[in-house]
Write a structure and sequence with these properties.
Length: 305
């Protein structure tokens, strides 16, 4: 609800009774939310026309102000937000989003280094969903969808390469690293780490053809971007049945010839589908294989191996 109050105030000024009517709460509840947002560092003006957001809060601790469902822990610098979220997990915490302005030891998939200078969005979401451990990949796909939707809103033509790379014209804009722990047969916790190259020069990043929002659309305001991303992720995490249809709508892999390296084998074929919780169906010519996890490369039509 506090998030909705903030959105209405951004379009302000709006008188308290009007805001209360729009949101279906009492004027007293509106005043409580406004006060809590102010305490969280949000600059809200009260004038004759009503309450109004004076300026979009800076990217910092206020990112979490009134965000329903998540507690946000913002750090100026961390080795890795995933590492910090794992620590919080071992202390029994949940529904925490760890954010850092920079990471000094960010990790990517396959234990690769993930270079994370200031200007990017580096965050990890700690959840304890009551689902079997095998369902964990659906949260990874949900994060890729959330990032894609949030940046498409900025006019960036982002798509998803299976399972969770967010690309623009074949260049990597964002990646997701999910880590889990089991508790007997169940899932103890899940940490979904998102790295989004935002206000960074691509030349400052290593790797094969990275891109950044700065290169795609110019520097962006990360405050609304992160809130949008987290809002999308929260919706999908609460309704995981909606993840695959959303993923398919933004997928760049389906219908393409791909090479997928799993732990022990490499498969080449046409990506024909994705099934719950995020497995890729590959038509190899000898039938359809279902691949749960792997490194996927899009091939040009002429490449066959
Ligand atoms: C990938 O290899 O594509 C996944 C990259 C994930 C990077 C993010 S940045 C925030 C979080 N903390 C980390 O150390 N890694 C993830």
């Amino acid at each position: 609800m506090r998030d909705r109050v903030l959105r209405e105030l951004a379009d302000g000024p709006v008188p308290v009774p009007e805001l209360a009517a729009t949101l279906g709460i009492t004027p007293a509840a509106v005043r409580e939310h406004v006060e809590a947002l102010r305490v969280a560092g949000v600059d809200i003006a009260a004038g004759e026309g009503g309450h109004e957001l004076r300026a979009t809060p800076a990217y910092g601790p206020a990112v979490g102000a009134g965000l329903d469902g998540f507690e946000v822990a913002f750090h100026d610098s961390l080795d890795s937000t995933n590492r910090r979220a794992r620590d919080l997990a071992t202390r029994g915490r949940e529904n925490v989003v760890v954010l850092a302005a920079e990471q000094t030891g960010g990790r990517g998939r396959l234990d690769r280094e993930w270079v994370s200078p200031r200007g990017g969005v580096w965050l990890s979401i700690l959840l304890r969903p009551s689902v079997p451990p095998a369902d964990a990949p659906v949260y990874t796909l949900a994060a890729a969808v959330a990032v894609t939707r949030a940046v498409r809103e900025l006019g960036v033509d982002a798509v998803i390469k299976w399972p969770n790379d967010v690309l623009v014209d074949g260049r990597k804009l964002a990646g997701v690293l999910t880590e889990t722990a089991r508790d007997g047969d169940g899932l103890a916790w899940l940490v979904v780490g998102v790295g989004l190259n935002a206000n960074i020069d691509p030349g400052d990043l290593p790797g094969d053809r990275p891109t950044t929002l700065r290169a795609e659309c110019g520097d962006v305001d990360r405050f609304p971007l992160v809130r949008r991303l987290l809002g999308e992720f929260r919706r999908l995490a609460r309704d995981t049945g909606a993840v695959l249809p959303a993923w398919r709508a933004h997928a760049d892999t389906l219908g393409r010839r791909v090479r997928v390296a799993t732990g022990d084998r490499t498969l080449v074929g046409e990506a024909v589908g994705v099934t719950f919780p995020g497995a890729l169906e590959l038509d190899t010519g000898d039938g359809v294989e279902t691949v749960a996890a792997g490194d996927c490369e899009h091939l040009r039509p002429a490449e066959t191996s």
